[in-house]
Amino acid sequence: MKEKTKVVLYVIGKTARSKNSIHELQSIMEKNFQNDYELIVVDLLVEPELAEEDNIMVTPTVVRKAPPPVRKIIGSLSDERSVLAGLELVP
Amino acid sequence: MEKQRKVTKMATGIKGFDAMLEGGIPRGRMLTITGSAGSGKTVFLNEFLYRGITEYGENGVFVSFEEKPSSIIENVGNFGWDYMELQENESLVFVDLSQSEGDTEEVSDDYDLYPILLRIQQAVKKAHAERIVLDSLSSLFTQLSNESRVRKFIYYLTMKLKEMGLTGIISSEQQDTGNNCASTKVEEYVTDGVIKLQILPGEQQLIRKMLVTKMRGVGYRSGYVQFDINEYGLRVFPKIAADRGTALTDFSERKCFGIPGLDAALDGGIPKGHIVLISGTTGSGKTLSSLKFLEEGIRTGERGVFVALEEPIEQIRKTAEAHGWDLSRHEADGVFHFVSSNLIDLFPDKLLNEIAEIVEKTGAQRVVVDSISSIMSASMESESVRQFLLQLAAYLKSRGITSILSYLMSANFGAEKGQLLSALETNTMRLSSVVDGVILMQYVEREQQVEKLLNVLKMRGCRHSRDIFHYEIVKGGIKLGERFHP
Lengths: 91, 486
Hints:
The structure holds two protein chains of two kinds. By secondary structure, chain A is α+β, with helices and mostly antiparallel strands. Helices cover 32% and strands 26% of the residues of chain A. Chain A has a four-stranded mixed β-sheet, covered by helices on one side. Chain A is globular, with a radius of gyration of 12 Å. In chain A, 34% of the residues are buried. By secondary structure, chain B is α/β, with parallel strands linked by helices. Chain B is built from 17 helices and 23 strands. Chain B has helices spanning 17-20, 41-56, 69-77, 83-88, 114-127, 137-143, 147-163, 182-190, 260-265, 286-299, 313-322, 327-333, 348-362, 372-377, 382-398, 419-422, 426-432; strands at residues 9-10, 25-26, 30-35, 60-64, 92-96, 104-106, 131-135, 167-173, 193-201, 206-215, 225-230, 233-237, 250-255, 270-272, 275-280, 304-308, 336-340, 366-370, 402-408, 437-446, 449-459, 468-474, 477-483. Chain B has a nine-stranded mixed β-sheet with strand order 5-4-7-8-3-9-10-11-12, sandwiched between helices. A nine-stranded mixed β-sheet of chain B has the order 17-16-18-19-15-20-21-22-23, with helices on both faces. The longest helix of chain B has 17 residues, at 147-163. Chain B is elongated and about 95 Å long. The chains are: A alpha+beta, B alpha/beta. The A-B interface holds A 10, 12, 17, 44-45, 48-49, 51-52, 55-61, 69-79, 82-83, 86 and B 96-97, 99, 103-116, 118-119, 121-122, 143-144. Strand 4 (71-74) of chain A pairs parallel with strand 6 (104-106) of chain B.
């Protein structure tokens, strides 16, 4: 059985930029994985200690937690193809 | 108008470095350290943190863009520093920003580096840190492609760190090619001081040099200084301080050799604080006279230092023993000390520091350097020999120490009448300007015989004898004889 795709998005603050990143990633995931994915959003202003765990340097960062291995992409998420390619996600 | 704040200094605790900066680095400021790979930047940063924590109770944060903390911990373990313990009691906190190869992809260069500041802030809070190091900016530039973002962020970050009251050092790798790389620009703008490290191949070991090019609000001695990294860490050899005008030659106090004829020729001995060159041919008794000078000092209650650059210490002990002087016993009594140095890669600054250190420690009144010629032949350019001598002379003079420098000159066989002086090497003449006195010991060939001749060529401020004397090497030193009649 195929493992459920799990991604974590790191943003900073409730800014327009953060909202935009959340929206962009949500649409990409929705379009390609329908309901078969899990998206967790971490606001580092609220939970700064979480930055250590995934070694976050910049926002936005997306970490693919499952399936393994861990993949990470940084930078704005406007281009669907490069996001999927960067995370090595095949719908 | 903003009130002008006086810069206070923070002693780093790095051996020799604070002395060079006359107290330390400016507190609450950010410095940059640059140098090629392997020049010792990371060791310097670790010294700064470790000394801060262990000697001054100033906790630290290590921000690493390059090495994993585990590897840093292992490396400093070689100096005997226990970073694990410091980490456990939270006096040292790492921010690990090193990236594993290839696990991150930049899908666009539009991002915000703020999380880095966030993580640093947490670490600073956790450690109650006063010191911070970042190693290295170059790695950060390698990790992120948007140079202008990174540059702006570094500017912002250093401002924030200063606001937080931290004192820090940021490392940046010096590129061999392209002098306008992004990281170089940043260090020039952002920081309050730049420390440049250099590494040069010596004959047998690496020669390390340090240059402080700007340090806002802090007085320091400029110019290259040497430093060394050994099993205990890093040590800087600053130019030794010669406080001007503290002690000058005292003509009323004379330092004798205990060689009656010679002391008489010197008008009662060498004036206290004089630096005298004994220039002589090989086997003429320079070392012997110098040892006799120290022996006489010890006999009259003055401690001595013998800087052995020519012969092995054991050899000198034997020579002394043959004349009835027990140097080992003097050493055990703490009245006599040797300083020796590896001549193949002679560090002039290191040697000066060693001499100064032992003089300060023992309160020595007489110093012998045997010999100056060996320093010259130790592949130092003549200008650095002159610099070395000037510094040594200034230092010894400032401490009121009477000293003898021996110099090996080439043989002067067959000198005709009146040629004894004119045949003097230009080197002796050149050295003469640095010293207060010159004593010549040389051979001349006379009617199938080699004769030993001594004369006092110069002795500032003294009515010394102008005569040339015969002398002999005897047990217990040298013995002056008749005046020489050519």
